[in-house]
Design goal:
Largest sheet: 4 strands, antiparallel
Order of helices and strands: HEEEEEEH
Shape: globular
Number of helices: 2
Structural class: alpha+beta
Radius of gyration: 13 Å
Number of strands: 6
Number of domains: 1
Length: about 110
């Protein structure tokens, strides 16, 4: 589902990025993801769902909520961890996870 070239693009901005699956859903783990300027915390582990999950075509989960950013934060148990995500819809997967990630991060600017 994700080409090695597409994974290399992600690993250039988030070394350690790797594919994982949980409940038949493909995720990309993004350890130490740097968040947009002004976010607190400025860095977080991320988990990018590149297929439909929780009613969204794609979804970005973070290891901690971002203070004052995003709307309607909720908690999700995935891959034996607790993840946080906000309401941000209509981000579709184009085959390039780096583009999908960038579209999700727009909500945190």
């Amino acid at each position: 589902m994700v080409s090695s070239e597409a994974m290399s693009e992600l690993q250039a901005i988030c070394p350690g990025a790797r594919l994982m699956t949980d409940g038949g859903v493909t995720f990309i783990l993004l350890p130490g993801l740097r968040l947009p300027a002004g976010c607190t915390p400025s860095q977080s582990d991320g988990l990018l769902a590149i297929q439909q999950r929780d009613g969204y075509p794609t979804k970005l989960y973070l290891s901690a909520p971002i203070q004052g950013k995003g709307n309607n934060w909720n908690v999700f148990p995935i891959l034996d961890r607790t993840w946080h995500s906000w309401s941000w819809k209509d981000v579709v997967y184009s085959g390039r996870p780096v583009d999908t990630l960038a579209q999700h991060l727009v909500a945190l600017r």
